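Handover notes (outgoing to incoming on-call)

Open items:
1. Neprosin PEP catalytic domain-containing protein: sequence verified, structure written out, both below. Nothing else pending on this one.
2. Nothing else urgent.
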Amino acid sequence: MASSSSSSSSSCSCFVVLLLVFTSFSSVLSSSISHQIPTKNQTLFHPAKELKKLKHIRNYLRKINKPPIKIIQSSDGDVIDCVLSHLQPAFDHPDLKGHSPLEPPERPRGNSNSTEEAIENFQLWSESGEFCPEGTIPIRRTTEKDIYRASSYRRYGRKPIKHVKRDSSGNGHEHAVVYVNGEQYYGAKASLNIWAPRVTDQYEFSISQIWVISGSFENDLNTIEAGWQVSPELYGDNNPRFFTYWTTDAYQATGCYNLLCSGFVQTNNRIAIGAAISPISSYRGKQFDIGLMVWKDPKHGHWWLEYGSGLLVGYWPAFLFSHLRSHASMVQFGGEVVNSRSNSGFHTGTQMGSGHFAEEGFGKASYFRNLQVVDWDNNLLPLTNLQVLADHSDCYDIRQTTNNVWGTYFYYGGPGRNVKCP
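Neprosin PEP catalytic domain-containing protein structure tokens:
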């Protein structure tokens, strides 16, 4: 009897096990089938495609994240690598291999800041007074997380191609700028104050910058750009950051932000391009601004960048460009935002500048002051024949004027979506 009972119990147990296995298999099969036949809003997961993407990303990171001789941790979470100058990404370019950074060029003559109090500006990573050693440059480390955050990993570090159209009313880019064109320009200079505008969508940004431009806006546009930007997609936060950009084919295949491709040659060990700026301006409070100057070295033809109180950051080699190899035909100053209309088709609430309109003036609106250009003989000159453009003045506007202290200057910006900007 005991034997029979044991056999019956064993058979029952086997049946239960088989039933569980079958049920589990059916569940897995059903799940597999449901993943193979996606619903309208589903996309297939392709392991091979994801592995290829991961391989591409890691190869890119190995290329741009150079081995540091010192690492500095920033209070905002950035990691700053101190990289030997001759190992920076610029020297991966075929035309720069084996080169070393050039010596500083002759600075343009004339100084609009002679009567101003120099304000030293810092970045968060160097608040403690720690900088990279001489002979190295600070590079903000790029991570896998940075690239996965981007809308397109293949175009990480580049502006969208649709950015090229100057009439931005239909492509999501809106400007409030002043500009000059029609002559030959060899540089530009201005001081602009720093804010932390609200950016309401991860794939939007808010930028305040100088553009040095030549060529057409169709497919051969050459630009050199520098200023500050808030870009959650690029940096993962809402801090205003010092940035540079260049392109020689209207943002299609050449150029990038900061040091995210070979091109810009950095020479300074105290400024990290792409790092957060500190301090920033406050509404009805203290105002902080930075001086920026881009100019063409008369001797070698390279385009140099100066930041703050005379700090040379580095240069864009002349060979990178076609039209800008000789001179610029347009210079712009001002703000730009992306309006993706992601909120049910309404205008974005992404702010430009301080987020307040130009009419509010000093301490409330964002400004550029002491606007100048560089002429063929390396002289800084005040601007004449300025033109003013606000793509949507009910969303972001601009007001330009002149006085004896700030020279040519303007207030600009706005809140984006409001009762007049639905």
